[in-house]
Amino acid sequence: MEGMTGILRIWLEALRPATLPAGVAPVLLGTALASADGYWLPRAAFICLGFALIAQVGSNFANDYLDGVRGTDGSNRTGPRRAVGAGLIAPQVMRRVAICTLVLAFIVGLSLIPLGGWRLLGVGFLCVLAAWCYTGGPYPLAYNGLGDLCVVFFFGIVAVGCTYYVQTGVWSVEALCLGLGSGFLTNNLLVVNNYRDREQDQAAEKRTLLVRYGLPFGVALTYFSASLAATVVVGLWMRGYGATVLFGLFPCAWSFILSRRLSRIRGSAEFGAALSNAGRVVALYSILLAFGLML
Question: What is the pLDDT, as a whole number, of residue 133?
Fold first, then answer.
């Protein structure tokens, strides 16, 4: 029994529960915007949520496997341990589980085709492909400074836009802007992670934006992300969505405070707390802004 409990704990850790708000937030925002515009399809919203969460988990497993076999997540890692890098799960086992999880996400996404048309087949395939190519393939995005762009595009624009589209049947400027704001705020999680791992990434030739342009650039990027997210909130209010959307400014203000503290963080425990807080900002932004939109 203890052995089974230990195995489950290892897989739960590899699943990275702290990253799941990044999958929930855009679906919640896209659904709230659709509801504010007079549409709400619970079935479509739940399918989008299922796809987002499963794809997020599959991406985490793929990242664990691919970074592990590259040697990026070795014994000198300062952040949370990774299952393959720490020798807790065999690489071939993690590889099979990652592929199966991403295939499952694609299958779940297929049920959106009757609601949004065949073009969503291409979107789903692109999402699953990006989940693997983020750290894998002949040109891994995260190793070539494109990880941030990938997060903003898929966890922001695509996730919010498609969630809105399958419920309304149309694309909108508001959904695009909301996707940008949410995506950049979500990307702060990646910035904090890369800030912590800059030395290890540089040694592993993982050329993140912080490796390329330095730590001050990372701090500036978090400020920009919070500013953009706040601008989106004000823009929605100015376009007639009601003053209640301004609730979304509170987590943006918190994000500014976290950005100011980032350069003073030292040690694994403090970075862990910073990552948790960045995740809470994303969760609060989606919850408060969604609440404001539906009001």
Answer: 95
